[in-house]
Amino acid sequence: MALLTIFKKARYGLLAIGVAALVFALIIMGAQARFLAGIFFDSGISLVSAFYLTWSVLYGGVSEFSLTTALVATISLLFGMNVAAITYYVRLYRATAVSAVAALGTGGVLSGILAVGCLSCGSLALAFLASFFSASSLLIFIPYQSPVFGLISILLLALSLYLLDRKLRFAFAYSRSK
Amino acid sequence: MLKNFLIVSAVVVLVGGVTVFLNKEEEPNTTRNIAGTVILEEHDHFLGSRSAPVKIVEYAEVECPYCKKLHPILLRILSEYEGQVSFVYRHFPLTIHPKSFNQAVALECVAENKGDSGFFEYLNKLYEATPSNNNFDLAILPRLAKEMGVQEEKFAECLASDRYRTRILRDVESGIGLNVDSVPHLIVIAPNGKEFVFGKSPSYAALNAVIKTALNEK
Protein backbone atom coordinates (compact mmCIF):
# COMPACT_ATOMS: atom_id res chain seq x y z
CA MET A 1 0.00 0.00 0.00
CA ALA A 2 1.55 3.27 -1.15
CA LEU A 3 0.01 5.29 1.68
CA LEU A 4 1.78 3.18 4.31
CA THR A 5 5.10 3.96 2.67
CA ILE A 6 4.32 7.66 2.98
CA PHE A 7 3.11 7.63 6.57
CA LYS A 8 6.15 5.65 7.67
CA LYS A 9 8.16 8.75 6.82
CA ALA A 10 8.16 10.78 10.04
CA ARG A 11 7.60 14.17 8.41
CA TYR A 12 4.44 13.04 6.56
CA GLY A 13 3.14 11.16 9.58
CA LEU A 14 3.60 14.30 11.65
CA LEU A 15 2.00 16.45 8.95
CA ALA A 16 -1.06 14.16 8.93
CA ILE A 17 -1.34 14.23 12.73
CA GLY A 18 -0.73 17.99 12.91
CA VAL A 19 -3.38 18.81 10.30
CA ALA A 20 -5.78 16.33 11.92
CA ALA A 21 -5.31 18.01 15.33
CA LEU A 22 -5.85 21.46 13.82
CA VAL A 23 -8.98 20.41 11.96
CA PHE A 24 -10.34 18.64 15.06
CA ALA A 25 -9.77 21.76 17.18
CA LEU A 26 -11.35 23.96 14.53
CA ILE A 27 -14.46 21.79 14.23
CA ILE A 28 -14.93 21.56 18.00
CA MET A 29 -14.47 25.32 18.41
CA GLY A 30 -16.49 26.07 15.27
CA ALA A 31 -19.48 24.38 16.89
CA GLN A 32 -19.27 26.98 19.67
CA ALA A 33 -18.41 29.88 17.35
CA ARG A 34 -21.22 32.02 18.73
CA PHE A 35 -20.04 31.51 22.30
CA LEU A 36 -16.40 32.19 21.41
CA ALA A 37 -17.31 35.28 19.39
CA GLY A 38 -19.27 36.49 22.40
CA ILE A 39 -16.46 36.07 24.92
CA PHE A 40 -13.79 37.58 22.68
CA PHE A 41 -15.70 40.49 21.21
CA ASP A 42 -18.55 41.45 23.51
CA SER A 43 -18.30 40.22 27.06
CA GLY A 44 -15.63 42.54 28.38
CA ILE A 45 -13.99 39.73 30.33
CA SER A 46 -10.21 39.54 30.60
CA LEU A 47 -8.18 37.91 27.84
CA VAL A 48 -6.96 35.30 30.34
CA SER A 49 -10.57 34.34 31.13
CA ALA A 50 -11.42 34.29 27.43
CA PHE A 51 -8.57 31.86 26.71
CA TYR A 52 -9.50 29.77 29.75
CA LEU A 53 -13.05 29.45 28.39
CA THR A 54 -11.75 28.63 24.91
CA TRP A 55 -9.56 25.93 26.40
CA SER A 56 -12.54 24.54 28.33
CA VAL A 57 -14.48 24.20 25.06
CA LEU A 58 -11.60 22.23 23.52
CA TYR A 59 -11.01 20.16 26.64
CA GLY A 60 -14.72 19.34 26.91
CA GLY A 61 -14.77 18.26 23.26
CA VAL A 62 -11.92 15.84 23.86
CA SER A 63 -12.72 14.57 27.35
CA GLU A 64 -16.47 14.03 26.98
CA PHE A 65 -16.47 11.27 24.43
CA SER A 66 -19.55 10.70 22.28
CA LEU A 67 -20.49 9.38 18.87
CA THR A 68 -20.19 12.92 17.52
CA THR A 69 -16.67 13.25 18.93
CA ALA A 70 -15.72 9.92 17.37
CA LEU A 71 -17.06 11.06 13.98
CA VAL A 72 -15.23 14.38 14.20
CA ALA A 73 -11.99 12.65 15.23
CA THR A 74 -12.28 10.18 12.34
CA ILE A 75 -13.07 12.93 9.82
CA SER A 76 -10.15 15.02 11.08
CA LEU A 77 -7.70 12.12 10.92
CA LEU A 78 -8.77 11.14 7.40
CA PHE A 79 -8.52 14.78 6.33
CA GLY A 80 -5.00 15.03 7.78
CA MET A 81 -3.99 11.85 5.94
CA ASN A 82 -5.41 13.26 2.70
CA VAL A 83 -3.44 16.49 3.08
CA ALA A 84 -0.22 14.59 3.82
CA ALA A 85 -0.73 12.24 0.87
CA ILE A 86 -1.52 15.10 -1.53
CA THR A 87 1.53 17.02 -0.27
CA TYR A 88 3.73 13.98 -0.90
CA TYR A 89 2.30 13.53 -4.37
CA VAL A 90 2.77 17.17 -5.28
CA ARG A 91 6.37 17.09 -3.99
CA LEU A 92 7.01 13.96 -6.01
CA TYR A 93 6.08 15.87 -9.10
CA ARG A 94 7.30 19.25 -7.95
CA ALA A 95 8.54 20.19 -11.39
CA THR A 96 5.06 19.86 -12.79
CA ALA A 97 3.12 20.51 -9.64
CA VAL A 98 0.06 21.97 -11.33
CA SER A 99 -0.37 19.07 -13.67
CA ALA A 100 0.31 16.71 -10.79
CA VAL A 101 -2.64 18.09 -8.85
CA ALA A 102 -4.72 17.78 -11.98
CA ALA A 103 -3.49 14.24 -12.34
CA LEU A 104 -4.81 13.38 -8.91
CA GLY A 105 -8.17 13.26 -10.55
CA THR A 106 -11.27 15.13 -9.61
CA GLY A 107 -12.54 12.12 -7.70
CA GLY A 108 -10.00 12.21 -4.89
CA VAL A 109 -9.75 15.94 -4.45
CA LEU A 110 -13.46 16.68 -4.81
CA SER A 111 -14.56 13.93 -2.49
CA GLY A 112 -12.02 15.15 0.06
CA ILE A 113 -13.33 18.70 -0.13
CA LEU A 114 -16.95 17.57 0.07
CA ALA A 115 -16.27 15.55 3.15
CA VAL A 116 -14.93 18.36 5.35
CA GLY A 117 -17.36 18.26 8.22
CA CYS A 118 -18.79 20.36 10.95
CA LEU A 119 -19.97 19.12 14.31
CA SER A 120 -23.68 19.57 13.87
CA CYS A 121 -24.35 19.23 10.15
CA GLY A 122 -21.63 16.75 9.23
CA SER A 123 -20.57 18.45 6.04
CA LEU A 124 -20.94 22.08 5.09
CA ALA A 125 -20.18 21.35 1.49
CA LEU A 126 -22.69 18.52 1.30
CA ALA A 127 -25.40 20.65 2.89
CA PHE A 128 -24.59 23.45 0.44
CA LEU A 129 -24.74 21.11 -2.54
CA ALA A 130 -28.01 19.66 -1.31
CA SER A 131 -29.53 23.13 -1.29
CA PHE A 132 -27.91 23.94 -4.65
CA PHE A 133 -29.68 21.00 -6.23
CA SER A 134 -32.93 21.93 -4.47
CA ALA A 135 -32.60 18.78 -2.43
CA SER A 136 -32.59 20.54 0.93
CA SER A 137 -36.14 19.40 1.56
CA LEU A 138 -34.64 15.92 1.89
CA LEU A 139 -32.85 17.14 5.01
CA ILE A 140 -36.10 16.97 6.97
CA PHE A 141 -36.03 13.20 6.57
CA ILE A 142 -32.71 13.04 8.37
CA PRO A 143 -33.37 13.00 12.11
CA TYR A 144 -31.92 15.69 14.32
CA GLN A 145 -28.48 14.61 15.62
CA SER A 146 -28.29 12.01 12.87
CA PRO A 147 -24.76 10.82 12.04
CA VAL A 148 -25.72 10.47 8.35
CA PHE A 149 -23.73 13.45 7.07
CA GLY A 150 -20.75 12.50 9.24
CA LEU A 151 -20.76 8.97 7.86
CA ILE A 152 -21.03 10.24 4.27
CA SER A 153 -18.05 12.51 4.98
CA ILE A 154 -16.03 9.56 6.27
CA LEU A 155 -16.92 7.49 3.21
CA LEU A 156 -15.92 10.31 0.85
CA LEU A 157 -12.62 10.93 2.66
CA ALA A 158 -11.87 7.19 2.60
CA LEU A 159 -12.69 7.16 -1.12
CA SER A 160 -10.36 10.12 -1.59
CA LEU A 161 -7.54 8.25 0.20
CA TYR A 162 -8.17 5.14 -1.86
CA LEU A 163 -7.96 7.14 -5.11
CA LEU A 164 -4.78 8.84 -3.90
CA ASP A 165 -3.30 5.47 -3.02
CA ARG A 166 -4.01 4.22 -6.52
CA LYS A 167 -2.37 7.25 -8.09
CA LEU A 168 0.65 6.89 -5.83
CA ARG A 169 1.05 3.18 -6.60
CA PHE A 170 1.00 4.07 -10.27
CA ALA A 171 3.58 6.83 -9.66
CA PHE A 172 5.85 4.44 -7.71
CA ALA A 173 5.62 1.79 -10.42
CA TYR A 174 6.35 4.39 -13.08
CA SER A 175 9.40 5.76 -11.24
CA ARG A 176 10.76 2.22 -10.69
CA SER A 177 10.36 1.39 -14.38
CA LYS A 178 12.44 4.42 -15.41
CA MET B 1 7.83 20.18 5.21
CA LEU B 2 7.63 22.67 8.05
CA LYS B 3 6.76 25.32 5.49
CA ASN B 4 3.89 23.18 4.16
CA PHE B 5 2.60 22.59 7.65
CA LEU B 6 2.76 26.29 8.45
CA ILE B 7 0.90 27.15 5.25
CA VAL B 8 -1.83 24.59 5.98
CA SER B 9 -2.03 25.82 9.60
CA ALA B 10 -2.31 29.42 8.47
CA VAL B 11 -5.13 28.57 6.04
CA VAL B 12 -7.02 26.59 8.71
CA VAL B 13 -6.64 29.37 11.29
CA LEU B 14 -7.66 31.98 8.71
CA VAL B 15 -10.80 30.05 7.81
CA GLY B 16 -11.59 29.66 11.52
CA GLY B 17 -11.06 33.36 12.13
CA VAL B 18 -13.32 34.31 9.23
CA THR B 19 -16.00 31.90 10.55
CA VAL B 20 -15.89 33.46 14.00
CA PHE B 21 -15.86 36.97 12.52
CA LEU B 22 -18.84 36.25 10.25
CA ASN B 23 -20.68 34.79 13.21
CA LYS B 24 -20.08 37.99 15.08
CA GLU B 25 -21.40 40.02 12.15
CA GLU B 26 -24.62 38.01 12.10
CA GLU B 27 -25.16 38.14 15.83
CA PRO B 28 -23.71 41.36 17.17
CA ASN B 29 -25.49 41.17 20.50
CA THR B 30 -24.53 37.75 21.81
CA THR B 31 -23.50 39.19 25.14
CA ARG B 32 -25.77 41.84 26.53
CA ASN B 33 -26.85 43.53 29.64
CA ILE B 34 -29.55 41.77 31.64
CA ALA B 35 -31.76 44.85 31.65
CA GLY B 36 -31.58 45.12 27.88
CA THR B 37 -32.48 41.63 26.85
CA VAL B 38 -33.01 38.64 29.13
CA ILE B 39 -35.76 39.80 31.39
CA LEU B 40 -36.61 37.23 34.01
CA GLU B 41 -40.37 37.03 34.36
CA GLU B 42 -42.57 36.21 37.32
CA HIS B 43 -44.00 33.24 35.42
CA ASP B 44 -40.55 31.77 34.61
CA HIS B 45 -39.96 28.28 35.97
CA PHE B 46 -37.02 28.27 38.38
CA LEU B 47 -35.07 25.31 39.67
CA GLY B 48 -33.02 26.59 42.59
CA SER B 49 -33.25 29.93 44.32
CA ARG B 50 -34.57 32.90 42.40
CA SER B 51 -31.96 35.00 44.17
CA ALA B 52 -29.00 32.81 43.19
CA PRO B 53 -26.13 35.00 41.88
CA VAL B 54 -25.76 33.07 38.63
CA LYS B 55 -28.74 32.07 36.51
CA ILE B 56 -28.81 29.69 33.57
CA VAL B 57 -31.66 30.38 31.17
CA GLU B 58 -32.30 27.53 28.77
CA TYR B 59 -34.48 27.60 25.67
CA ALA B 60 -35.34 24.00 24.93
CA GLU B 61 -37.94 21.44 23.94
CA VAL B 62 -38.32 17.87 25.09
CA GLU B 63 -38.07 16.14 21.69
CA CYS B 64 -34.66 17.58 20.86
CA PRO B 65 -31.96 14.94 21.48
CA TYR B 66 -29.32 17.57 22.29
CA CYS B 67 -31.60 19.02 24.99
CA LYS B 68 -32.10 15.55 26.43
CA LYS B 69 -28.34 15.00 26.50
CA LEU B 70 -27.70 18.40 28.07
CA HIS B 71 -30.30 18.04 30.83
CA PRO B 72 -28.22 15.79 33.16
CA ILE B 73 -25.28 18.17 32.74
CA LEU B 74 -27.46 21.08 33.91
CA LEU B 75 -28.71 19.06 36.89
CA ARG B 76 -25.12 18.16 37.78
CA ILE B 77 -24.06 21.82 37.65
CA LEU B 78 -27.02 22.78 39.85
CA SER B 79 -26.15 20.18 42.47
CA GLU B 80 -22.47 21.16 42.45
CA TYR B 81 -23.23 24.88 42.80
CA GLU B 82 -26.22 24.62 45.12
CA GLY B 83 -27.39 28.06 46.21
CA GLN B 84 -25.07 29.78 43.75
CA VAL B 85 -26.73 28.80 40.49
CA SER B 86 -30.37 28.55 39.48
CA PHE B 87 -31.93 27.24 36.29
CA VAL B 88 -34.72 28.80 34.26
CA TYR B 89 -36.46 26.69 31.62
CA ARG B 90 -38.17 28.40 28.70
CA HIS B 91 -40.20 26.64 26.03
CA PHE B 92 -38.97 26.71 22.46
CA PRO B 93 -40.88 23.93 20.67
CA LEU B 94 -39.60 23.42 17.13
CA THR B 95 -42.03 22.95 14.26
CA ILE B 96 -40.14 19.83 13.14
CA HIS B 97 -41.16 18.25 16.47
CA PRO B 98 -44.90 19.03 16.80
CA LYS B 99 -45.24 16.80 19.86
CA SER B 100 -42.94 19.09 21.80
CA PHE B 101 -45.71 21.70 21.88
CA ASN B 102 -48.08 19.17 23.52
CA GLN B 103 -45.33 18.37 26.01
CA ALA B 104 -44.89 22.08 26.75
CA VAL B 105 -48.63 22.37 27.46
CA ALA B 106 -48.47 19.27 29.67
CA LEU B 107 -45.55 20.77 31.60
CA GLU B 108 -47.55 23.93 32.24
CA CYS B 109 -50.56 21.86 33.35
CA VAL B 110 -48.40 20.00 35.86
CA ALA B 111 -46.91 23.29 37.08
CA GLU B 112 -50.47 24.59 37.57
CA ASN B 113 -51.01 21.77 40.10
CA LYS B 114 -47.56 21.19 41.52
CA GLY B 115 -45.63 24.42 41.04
CA ASP B 116 -42.05 24.76 39.77
CA SER B 117 -40.78 21.66 41.59
CA GLY B 118 -43.51 19.60 39.87
CA PHE B 119 -42.64 21.23 36.56
CA PHE B 120 -39.03 20.08 36.77
CA GLU B 121 -39.91 16.62 38.10
CA TYR B 122 -42.25 16.17 35.13
CA LEU B 123 -39.59 17.50 32.77
CA ASN B 124 -37.19 14.82 34.06
CA LYS B 125 -39.84 12.17 33.45
CA LEU B 126 -40.51 13.39 29.91
CA TYR B 127 -36.81 13.36 29.03
CA GLU B 128 -36.51 9.84 30.45
CA ALA B 129 -39.55 8.62 28.53
CA THR B 130 -38.91 10.13 25.12
CA PRO B 131 -36.82 8.47 22.41
CA SER B 132 -36.47 12.03 20.93
CA ASN B 133 -37.12 13.33 17.41
CA ASN B 134 -40.91 13.40 17.80
CA ASN B 135 -41.12 9.68 18.59
CA PHE B 136 -42.78 10.26 21.97
CA ASP B 137 -46.11 8.55 22.65
CA LEU B 138 -48.41 11.39 23.73
CA ALA B 139 -50.82 8.90 25.30
CA ILE B 140 -48.47 8.47 28.27
CA LEU B 141 -48.60 12.15 29.28
CA PRO B 142 -51.53 11.62 31.72
CA ARG B 143 -49.95 8.50 33.21
CA LEU B 144 -46.69 10.33 33.94
CA ALA B 145 -48.64 13.20 35.51
CA LYS B 146 -50.73 10.78 37.58
CA GLU B 147 -47.53 9.18 38.92
CA MET B 148 -46.75 12.57 40.42
CA GLY B 149 -50.14 12.86 42.07
CA VAL B 150 -51.74 15.22 39.55
CA GLN B 151 -55.50 14.71 39.35
CA GLU B 152 -56.42 13.00 36.10
CA GLU B 153 -59.55 15.05 35.39
CA LYS B 154 -57.85 18.36 36.04
CA PHE B 155 -54.90 17.40 33.87
CA ALA B 156 -57.14 16.22 31.03
CA GLU B 157 -59.20 19.42 31.21
CA CYS B 158 -56.03 21.52 31.16
CA LEU B 159 -54.59 19.66 28.17
CA ALA B 160 -57.85 20.05 26.26
CA SER B 161 -58.04 23.76 27.01
CA ASP B 162 -56.04 26.37 25.16
CA ARG B 163 -55.07 28.41 28.20
CA TYR B 164 -51.29 27.87 28.07
CA ARG B 165 -50.84 28.47 24.36
CA THR B 166 -50.15 32.17 24.82
CA ARG B 167 -47.82 31.48 27.76
CA ILE B 168 -45.71 29.11 25.63
CA LEU B 169 -45.70 31.43 22.63
CA ARG B 170 -44.46 34.24 24.87
CA ASP B 171 -41.41 32.11 25.68
CA VAL B 172 -40.88 31.50 21.97
CA GLU B 173 -41.20 35.20 21.18
CA SER B 174 -38.73 36.13 23.92
CA GLY B 175 -36.32 33.56 22.44
CA ILE B 176 -36.67 35.00 18.95
CA GLY B 177 -35.94 38.40 20.46
CA LEU B 178 -32.69 36.96 21.81
CA ASN B 179 -31.65 35.47 18.44
CA VAL B 180 -32.46 31.93 19.51
CA ASP B 181 -32.42 29.92 16.30
CA SER B 182 -31.88 26.41 17.59
CA VAL B 183 -32.16 24.42 20.79
CA PRO B 184 -30.74 23.99 23.31
CA HIS B 185 -29.78 27.63 23.68
CA LEU B 186 -28.21 28.65 26.99
CA ILE B 187 -27.67 32.06 28.47
CA VAL B 188 -25.59 32.18 31.64
CA ILE B 189 -26.20 35.42 33.52
CA ALA B 190 -23.45 36.58 35.89
CA PRO B 191 -24.20 38.57 39.08
CA ASN B 192 -23.19 41.81 37.31
CA GLY B 193 -25.53 41.12 34.39
CA LYS B 194 -22.92 39.89 31.92
CA GLU B 195 -24.24 37.15 29.70
CA PHE B 196 -22.48 34.15 28.23
CA VAL B 197 -24.41 32.68 25.32
CA PHE B 198 -24.16 29.11 24.07
CA GLY B 199 -25.93 28.74 20.73
CA LYS B 200 -25.17 25.02 20.82
CA SER B 201 -25.13 22.45 23.59
CA PRO B 202 -21.99 22.93 25.72
CA SER B 203 -19.92 20.18 27.31
CA TYR B 204 -19.84 19.88 31.10
CA ALA B 205 -16.28 21.24 31.13
CA ALA B 206 -17.22 24.34 29.13
CA LEU B 207 -20.35 25.08 31.16
CA ASN B 208 -18.50 24.53 34.43
CA ALA B 209 -15.77 26.96 33.32
CA VAL B 210 -18.38 29.56 32.41
CA ILE B 211 -20.10 29.20 35.81
CA LYS B 212 -16.75 29.67 37.58
CA THR B 213 -16.03 32.75 35.48
CA ALA B 214 -19.54 34.13 35.96
CA LEU B 215 -19.32 33.73 39.74
CA ASN B 216 -16.25 35.98 39.70
CA GLU B 217 -18.06 38.67 37.69
CA LYS B 218 -19.40 40.83 40.53
Automatic annotation (TrEMBL), chain A:
<feature type="transmembrane region" description="Helical">
    <location>
        <begin position="67"/>
        <end position="90"/>
    </location>
</feature>
<feature type="transmembrane region" description="Helical">
    <location>
        <begin position="148"/>
        <end position="164"/>
    </location>
</feature>
<keyword id="KW-1133">Transmembrane helix</keyword>
<keyword id="KW-0472">Membrane</keyword>
<feature type="transmembrane region" description="Helical">
    <location>
        <begin position="35"/>
        <end position="55"/>
    </location>
</feature>
<feature type="transmembrane region" description="Helical">
    <location>
        <begin position="12"/>
        <end position="29"/>
    </location>
</feature>
<keyword id="KW-0812">Transmembrane</keyword>
<protein>
    <submittedName>
        <fullName>Uncharacterized protein</fullName>
    </submittedName>
</protein>
TrEMBL record, chain B:
<keyword id="KW-0676">Redox-active center</keyword>
<dbReference type="InterPro" id="IPR012336">
    <property type="entry name" value="Thioredoxin-like_fold"/>
</dbReference>
<dbReference type="GO" id="GO:0016491">
    <property type="term" value="F:oxidoreductase activity"/>
</dbReference>
<keyword id="KW-0560">Oxidoreductase</keyword>
<comment type="similarity">
    <text>Belongs to the thioredoxin family. DsbA subfamily.</text>
</comment>
<keyword id="KW-1015">Disulfide bond</keyword>
<protein>
    <recommendedName>
        <fullName>Thioredoxin-like fold domain-containing protein</fullName>
    </recommendedName>
</protein>
<keyword id="KW-0732">Signal</keyword>
<dbReference type="Pfam" id="PF13462">
    <property type="entry name" value="Thioredoxin_4"/>
</dbReference>
<dbReference type="InterPro" id="IPR036249">
    <property type="entry name" value="Thioredoxin-like_sf"/>
</dbReference>
<feature type="domain" description="Thioredoxin-like fold">
    <location>
        <begin position="42"/>
        <end position="212"/>
    </location>
</feature>
